[in-house]
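debug: dumping io for the single-chain case to check the tokenizer round-trip. Nothing else runs in this session.
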Amino acid sequence: MSNLYDTLGVPKNASADEIKKAYRKLAREHHPDSGGDETKFKEIQGAYDVLSDSEKRTQYDQFGSANGRAPFGGGGAQFQDFDLSDLFGGLFGGGAGGRRRGPQPERGADLQVEVHVSFEDSLKGVQVPVRAEVATACHVCGGSGAEPGTAPIVCPQCGGRGVTSDSHGLFALSHPCARCRGNGTVIEKPCKTCRGSARERVQKTFQVKIPGGARDGTRIRLKGRGEPGRNGGPAGDLWVITRVGDSQLYERRGADLVVDVPVSYTDAALGASVQVPTPDGPISLKIPAGSQHGKLLKVKGRGAPKLKGGGNGDLLARLKLVVPKKVSKQERELLEQLRKVSR
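debug: decoded output
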């Protein structure tokens, strides 16, 4: 027969509080529902059954048994009933003693909408109206979910606690009430407009500032403009996704802009100054002599605004060599002379 004090891991002169603390720790560790050993758990329970009772403990200390019998009653320990929620601090819901924790605050869902802007507006920035469908309190029932003139009642199944408990011999498990879904109240006559949901969906319009430099797919966050939270939880966010139209003039590479610049073969060969369009107006660009078709000439800081870090990207002038389909008699003679010289 094992020593009961050794079973609980306490000295013989341990106080009642020390015994109780040791028991609770071991019970959590060895409870069968937590994957512990059932035999070991019974030994712990039997030891606590004796040592927690002052009269039984005195008899055990004097005679080695309680009430003139083995402490475990011939292998059939007299277990104390207890609620697992008391041991595990509400692990199964409901808290100690099955007390109601109540519905937990829930954050509202995020919403997402797309807004179309022109290429030019995406470069300079623009304020646009955005429409989104969001949930709001039902205008008929005022957000109660109940038909006007009525109100939610205390749940008859859980008595408003929001949880119910099932007894399993040695312990009891608490879980959200199936009738009220943990709310503690039920709606007998739901609102016909919202069907008891307490909410309705409405179209709302928000003014959104599209920053200069926005790209296709840029995400703009409107904090707290999403779905409302539940049980006091915060509202979600509204995410505005930009869809930028194409440009007939520019090709975008991040914050850089590429523009095609037509150049005659004589200007490409001899060099020249040409007018190049930029978002802020045309500028004069020097073409080096001997420039080849497709060459990129960088104009620093003349591209799109950068969303991060400030400043602008660059303008990349891509030279497009233009060969005339028809030439005059004089041009042909000059070209023939050039061909002879180049040979």
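debug: round-trip ok. The chain is about 20% helix and 25% strand.
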